[in-house]
């Protein structure tokens, strides 16, 4: 654990909870790629191109929004957002160390 962020957990094998606050890992950055004309997730020597909803989820991973708030925000943008799919997506990113979560 990072002493500057004592409540940070990574990785999670059981999944994220609704009260968790996801944030991009320190070495990861979400940016817009002009060549691809879409957002990309970058970390040293690796680039991931998330689909549209994945990029929307990552955009809200700022450490302030809880997982439940992310689901609600996406639900306001789109008609339906399966909360379990958002949690599974975030859990995979936490397991890969792209995203960290803090206890809510």
- Domains counted in the coordinates: how many? 1
What class, by secondary structure content? alpha+beta
User: Any low-confidence stretches, pLDDT <50, length ≥5?
Assistant: 1-6
Between the first and last Cα atoms, what is the distance in angstroms?
Answer: 16 Å
Average residue-wise pLDDT: 86
- Biggest sheet architecture: 3 strands, antiparallel
How does the overall form come out from the CA principal axes? globular
Please give the count of helices.
Answer: 3
> Can you say what the CATH homologous superfamily is?
Coenzyme PQQ synthesis protein D (PqqD)
CATH architecture: Orthogonal Bundle
Helix content: 25-40%
Which topology does CATH recognise? Arc Repressor Mutant, subunit A
Return the CATH class: Mainly Alpha
Cα-based radius of gyration, to the nearest Å: 13 Å
The ordered string of helix (H) and strand (E) elements is EEEEEHHHE
- Name the strands of the widest sheet in spatial order: 1-6-2
């Amino acid at each position: 654990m990072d002493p500057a962020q004592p409540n940070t957990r990574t990785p999670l094998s059981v999944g994220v909870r609704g009260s968790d606050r996801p944030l991009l890992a320190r070495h990861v950055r979400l940016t817009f790629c002009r060549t691809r004309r879409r957002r990309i997730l970058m970390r040293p020597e690796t680039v991931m191109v998330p689909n549209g909803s994945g990029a929307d989820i990552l955009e809200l991973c700022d450490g302030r929004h809880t997982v439940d708030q992310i689901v609600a925000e996406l639900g306001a943008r789109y008609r339906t957002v399966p909360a379990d799919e958002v949690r599974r997506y975030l859990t995979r990113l936490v397991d890969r160390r792209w995203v960290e979560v803090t206890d809510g």
